[in-house]
């Protein structure tokens, strides 16, 4: 990664560029292999309601395993976006998430899954078809498949994006605004967005309780969203203290390592079974 590249002796821009290009090719190749040979997986991270500790949803987070090396999204999503592979990855995660929902329902568990949707997917005219295909292939109800869309993508004024967002809503998929607070849109934009849920970005939570500015921003966003009738998920809660602060602020639900890490499907099953038995 970049850390390794910058840690060594001085790299002049030409050499750095070549290294980055090689790394990109390596990741691209790994993604192709993973798509062909079952190397992709979704890890599921629980999101818990503050009010009663119940499972609000799980966020599905993609992992790419290529010949024993696991690539994290921060490495492969940017490459996938650049090469257009993200469309196939996105279709795969929608379908896999939908199948997860129906497998859970078959076990009498109503679990909502939240799937991240990329810009490339939302700018593709066939996005709606992909949504219907995921429903048809899985028999999952759309209300259990939440689409996470970043704030700046919601604000994209292109016709096709706005049409895709409306079509997803009309098909019954709940929408949430991911990474809220880090885009460049203004708070006033919240009044017009068709999402019922906002996910407060980890950036404002990481340095709590020590940073009073983060505290002020987090509090303002939570209160505004609640006043607008939205629910609020706090992302990236890592400590008991952060949990207490965010629940005190009124956050509806919490996601973060403090409660649970993203887990492969079998481990999530165990996690769920353990909760039910206690
Ligand atoms: P995101 O949608 O904001 O997902 C939350 C990220 O925060 C995940 O990183 C999760 O592992 C991490 N996280 C959760 N709780 C904590 C915590 O307490 N502390 C810390 N430090 N991190 C926490 P991950 O899995 O590495 O994913 C990174 C990003 O990659 C996601 O951010 C999302 O934007 C993107 N991504 C992941 N899966 C997909 C996918 O299937 N499709 C698309 N388009 N993007 C994806
Ligand atoms: Mg997300
Ligand atoms: Mg997020
Ligand atoms: Mg994030």
What does this structure look like?
This is Diguanylate cyclase (GGDEF)-like protein. It comes from Sulfuritortus calidifontis. Residues 24-276 form the EAL domain. By secondary structure, the protein is an alpha/beta fold. The chain has eleven helices and nine strands. Strands 1-2-4-5-6-7-8-9 form an eight-stranded mixed barrel, surrounded by four helices. Helix 4 (86-106) runs parallel beside helix 6 (127-138). The chain is globular and about 45 Å long. The N and C termini lie far apart (42 Å). The structure holds ligand C2E and magnesium ion (3 copies).
Summarize the structure.
With 278 residues, the protein is of the alpha/beta class. It has helices at 2-7, 13-37, 73-83, 86-106, 119-122, 127-138, 151-154, 159-170, 212-227, 240-249, 265-277; strands spanning 40-49, 55-66, 69-71, 113-116, 145-150, 175-180, 197-200, 231-234, 253-254.
Write the layout of secondary structure elements.
Elements: H1 2-7, H2 13-37, E1 40-49, E2 55-66, E3 69-71, H3 73-83, H4 86-106, E4 113-116, H5 119-122, H6 127-138, E5 145-150, H7 151-154, H8 159-170, E6 175-180, E7 197-200, H9 212-227, E8 231-234, H10 240-249, E9 253-254, H11 265-277
Parallel strand pairs: 2-4, 4-5, 5-6, 6-7, 7-8, 8-9
Antiparallel strand pairs: 1-2, 1-9, 2-3
Helix pairs in contact: 2-3, 4-6
The structure holds ligand C2E and magnesium ion (3 copies).
